[in-house]
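Folding follows sequence. Below is one example:
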Amino acid sequence: MSERDAIGATIQLYFDSLHESSKDKVNLSFHPNAKIAGLFHGDFLEMSRDDFGDFVASQQPSPKEKGDAERLDILSIEVAGITAVARVRDDYLGFTFLDTLSLIKTDEPWLIYNKLFHVES
């Protein structure tokens, strides 16, 4: 599997965590020290991986169970050694997000280390 394909698999796992409301999949796709940040309704939000996982898991019933349409567009992936940056657009909870994901590959598969999100609509 190419590095880009492996990164794509991590991004898909992240998206699946949202669609299925799965904290376990958040934990598998994000580094333990990851940070998630962005503006939402004019408020700056910053979360740890655990906080984000709890938020994702609290969305019950899950978007999948509600029959929400899935939308994940990987717009770009740039790889530099053990680091990468990806831009993705996804729909979640009635909003369209543009995410900038910083990823790192250590002894494990590619993991998201930082997620900056922008609400497009």
In short: Residues 25 and 41 are 26 Å apart (CA to CA). The radius of gyration is 14 Å. The first strand starts at residue 30 and ends at 40. DSSP finds four helices and six strands in the chain.
